[in-house]
Each structure stands twice: as C-alpha cells, then as structure tokens.
Known about the structure:
The chain is of the alpha/beta class and 179 residues long. 34% of the residues lie in helices and 18% in strands.
Amino acid sequence: MEPLIKITTRDDIIPEYRNTPVGLFLEYHNLGRKFVKHTKPELLIGMCIDSRLVLNVPHNFSYVVRSGGGNMRDMEFNISYAIAVGGIRHIIVLGHTNCAMINLIDKRKDFIKGMVDTAGWAKYLAEEHFQESQPIYEIKNEIDFVLKETRRLRLKYPRVTVVPMMYRVKNNHIFLIDE
Ligand SMILES: [Zn+2]
C-alpha cells in the first residue's frame, strides 16, 4: 500500500497545511480553485524535467526548480536565493510516477551512444560524464527518494516548511505523501 494521500476535497489536505501556500497549491492544481493575482511568489517547487508534468498554478505563485528526478542537490544556490531574497517559507519536493531516473544505470549504453551521435562528444568523455552523474541522479524508488530529499532540505533550511508530494502522470493528480 503506497503512503499517498489523495486530495479531492479541501478537507483531504492535512490541517497543518490547510490555509498555507502548500494547501493553496493543492487547491489550485487538484481542485481547480479559481486563480487569484499574486503579488509575490508564495513557495518553491522542486520537480523533474519530465515534459509530462504540467502544473496548474497562477502567474507569479511559485518558483519552480526542475532537474532530473527533482533532485535538488545541484540547485542549492537557486533555492537559497528564493528563500533569502524571495522570502519563500515553503518548499514542495514533487516526485512523480514513472520517472526516467529510475534504474538510470540501465540507460548507460543509450546515454553514451546519444552523447557521441547527437551531442558530438568523444566516447571517453561521455563515459566519464555518466560515471560521475549516475550516482547522484539514480533513483531506486520514487517515494523513498522524495522523502530523502525532504529530510535533507529540512536539515539545510530549518525554518522552512518542506513538504513531500507525488505527481501521478496517468491522471495529473498530485498526492501528499503520508509521512
Ligand atoms: Zn522524472
């Protein structure tokens, strides 16, 4: 049984997140809440580069940091800036189903061939590039990965609320992860 909380009404949002930017995000994306004008961004969302993920949020509501698997390890200055200068107090770590970063190691051959044929790299450089990056971006299990990133960011930014969520590609629904 997956530890996912389905959000189909406002009451499904756990009370500590209701009436916060986190709850508002779920209302916009899942519940079709009417967009209002935001004068400044309310939260930061970290998510995968996957082209199937499309957020239903209003203009100027959120900073969005995207990287393979939603891995935010190389994005720290961006996140720090959004907090320190942008005044962000909430971060959502948004994983998704069916992520290509799962079992990345299996894609080694395709990656190297693509870097040589499409990008024009020397084979040994492509091999090195994969070797260095694969351990950072590899995901074994989407939910575990999101929870791990959440814990890491909570330690790094102790006054910021960090919330793990999961995007189901099949129906574009975003779930809270039950911790
Ligand atoms: Zn992905």
